[in-house]
Amino acid sequence: MFLTRDIMVTPAISVTKEQTVKEALHLLDEHGISGLPVVDPNNRVIGIISDTDIIRYSQQNKIVPHTRSSFRVSPFSEVDELASVRSGFEMLHRTLIEEVMTKKVYTVTEDTPTTDVAKLMDRRNINRVPVVDGEGILIGIITRADMIHYMANLEK
Predict the structure, then answer these.
(1) What is the pTM of this model?
(2) Most exposed of 7, 29, 61, 100 (fewest Cβ within 10 Å)?
């Protein structure tokens, strides 16, 4: 039986609720990942922020308006439309992670069987699960991509 410790990535890249969405976006881009655990000052997991959370927040709050130009500048783009898009992105960048993050977080320990992690991801339709110790302190993360990578590289 394979355990979470066999697959998890450590250390997990994380953010705090006081950081901005811009900081989270930079980390997501820099590391080629789609989500981050949110931790308190003691490194206890208190949330998750993902690219989906950021897009959903933007749409629900109409922060970044839909444009006819699909964010492409052309001779036909309206100046007001482009200014509105820029203003929306600037507002989104200043937004605190606390306003965007998912607060209900499912976690596992390093001794959790990977089959249980897979079932959790499937049942809850989530793509990443923080791995915590007995006190809820972040020690790693396991994603669907990590599980696929591990399975693809198992020797028969």
Answers:
(1) 0.81
(2) 29
Residue range 75-90, pLDDT digits in tens: 555 555 544 455 556 6
Total domains present in the chain: 1
Three state DSSP letters for the chain: CCEHHHCCECCCCCEECCCEHHHHHHHHHHHCCCEEEEECCCCEEEEEEEHHHHHHHHHHCCCCCCCCCCCCCCCCCCHHHHHHHHHHHHHHHHCEHHHHCECCCCCECCCCEHHHHHHHHHHHCCCEEEEECCCCEEEEEEEHHHHHHHHHCCCC
pLDDT digits (tens, 9 = 90+) for 96-116: 999 999 999 999 999 999 999
The range of the structural domain enclosing residue 34 comes to 4-152
